[in-house]
Amino acid sequence: MRRIGRTFEHPGWWIAAGIGLVLFLLIQVFPILGDHGGNRPLSRETGEKAALAAAREKFGVTAGSADVRLTHLSDSEAVGYFAKEKLTDRYDRTWAEDYPTDVYRADFWPEADSGTLTLYISLESGKLVAWRDGRLPAADRAGTGETPASSSSEGSREGADRALQYAAFWGVKTSDWEWDGNPADPDGKWTFLSRKGDLGEARLVLEARVPETFSPASSAYPPTEGGSVTYDIRVPEAFSAYLAQQKRLASRLNAIGFVLPELVLLVLSIVYAAARRSYASFRRGLGLTAVFLILYTAFYFNLLPGFRAGLLDEGITGDDLAVLGLLIINLVILACMGIFTYFSAVAGDGLWRSMGRNLWPRWKEAGYGQAVLTGMKQGYPLAFLLLGVQSVILLGLEQGIGMFQSTDASQSSPNMTLPWLLLALAWCTGISEELQSRLFGIGLFRSWLLGGAKRALGRPPSPRAETWLTLAAMIPPGAVWAFGHAGYAVYPATSRLIELIVLSLLFGWFLLRFGLFAVVFAHIVLDTTLMCVQLMADGLPGDRIAAPVGFLLPAAVAWLIWLAHRRRNGHSFPTEGRET
Length: 580
Fold this sequence. Notes:
With 580 residues, the protein is an alpha+beta fold. A hairpin with an 8-residue loop joins strand 2 and strand 3. It has an 8-stranded antiparallel sheet. The chain has helices spanning 11-36, 44-59, 76-84, 88-94, 138-141, 156-168, 237-275, 286-302, 304-313, 320-354, 368-401, 423-457, 463-483, 495-514, 516-538, 543-568, and strands spanning 68-74, 102-108, 117-122, 128-133, 177-179, 189-194, 203-209, 228-234, 404-405, 490-491. The protein folds into 2 domains: 44-235, no CATH class; 246-568, no CATH class. The protein is elongated, with a radius of gyration of 28 Å. The protein contains 16 helices and 10 strands.
């Protein structure tokens, strides 16, 4: 007879947790903090101020914060290429200051129906690095509504020289660039190649579009309406094709390996909630589901700039209507996730109790509060152990199959209104994924396998066979969980499948050995720790306070639950059935 909720009985657990923490610090934390080297992203407020100052000083646009739409954009192709080819340090030393991969895009609408002024501000320095003025010149607003391309495009060399002279007014050193030999494109943009050499096979490209009224001989400040000075980091076509292929693969893996199975499991969770109703209560999971929905809804509203970044990355307009539409779609999906989380709690608890296991004590059961407190105490060291295993796997994948990471601005801290609210996501994933994938998922497949073995043998399987069947039951829900993370900006797209299937087996083992509270807290602490490292590295407003508070929050919540339950009754937690 063994009690769920007991503390670690063998010092080996603490030794393993300590080793895991050291490995995590050496492999993941120190390199991340070292890579930042003091260069941290500007807050949204500071980015807005820099954009407003540039708009006023260089473009004559007077606006307030309410008149600018700020979005963090990242050149994921360039970031991925530099990471894969180990060129990130060289890029940081050479191109990053004037031609950053990460910028704040600031959109202004100075006058109704006149077009958009778009500025690109360095994410780290606040420097204006590129701009595009889509406003129509005053003389054209009453006409066709179209801005003519520069007449100099007829004479290629003259047009190119004129475009480079125009770019020089915006701080571009003409000696650093050479014309690519091609005439202006249909939009009137001229293209120039950097003379400073390439990084690997990546080329730095400058593009300039000259307003029709620009005169190099004039001493007046050059016009901007209809003009632009932008840049691009062109990675090899082979790498672009590879990245596009990997993104398509990730989408297929996510759809086939996660979305479709999740829909099937959702239906099964409803079926088994009804089928095991004599063992389960339909009040199970209501509180956890409510916490999940409230925190995830807050997270989505906090990520509205990230939705815009995702739309822009796909070449879709990032206007307010499009962002609202994407938000509504995500909230509908979230509602379905909430339904699945709730029925997973009911069905999962019923399945395990029908198999003689009590992995999740109820509030009315004696010792509930102590079980929560002990689960938290187990969760922290288990999280450190898991972080160490994860770190070793990631290092092995990097060295073995050349795994590399790019960026996804749609999930970045600078695209969150309150960056520290990222920590809410750790609680959402810890609650929903452990209820869905572990409590219900493992319970479902275990009941099928044990039931099938019993029918085939005409008797219950032996303890040894039961152990192996339980291990086998962890694999399908663990694989579904892993496929759900295939869309992250980690390549090859299969990299995270290897990592997370291994972690899913450990989570499953911990569930059976220590109970649901331990794995929920372990998952929350694991994700919180990773997010706290990111917050500390970014250093955005509130991050330095939120990181330690967020790390200690699981302990505080567990203590408050223990205290509340203790005031109600102070009994100890009952023993459960035999151990598997």
